Amino acid sequence: QTVRSKIADWYVQQQGLKLTRYRTLTALSKGQTPGPESSIIKIVAAPKMQDMGAFAMELMGPAGIMKEG
User: Fold this and answer.
1) 20 with 58: CB under 8 angstroms?
2) Of 1, 17, 41, 69, which has fewest CB within 10 angstroms of its CB?
3) What whole-number distance in Å separates Cα of residue 24 and Cα of residue 65?
4) One-character DSSP codes across 3-42
5) What is the pTM of this model?
6) Digits of tens for pLDDT over the chain (69 positions)?
């Protein structure tokens, strides 16, 4: 995928996560117990962050695995 396509995918995922967080906050504000929203956020967010990190390292090439001293 192109860089632009990856960024667009992550943006869409982030918007979905934001709206899911709003559902959790709405339930809490009404004194209700949130449903599976928190689990959904964890399931989606963790791989997304790993994918972003891996892609950043890929874009940096060999410099992505080097650490400054």
Assistant:
1) no
2) 69
3) 38
4) HHHHHHHHHHHHHHHHHHHHHHHHHHHTTPPP-THHHHHH
5) 0.72
6) 689 999 999 999 999 999 999 999 999 999 998 889 888 888 989 999 999 988 988 888 877 677 665
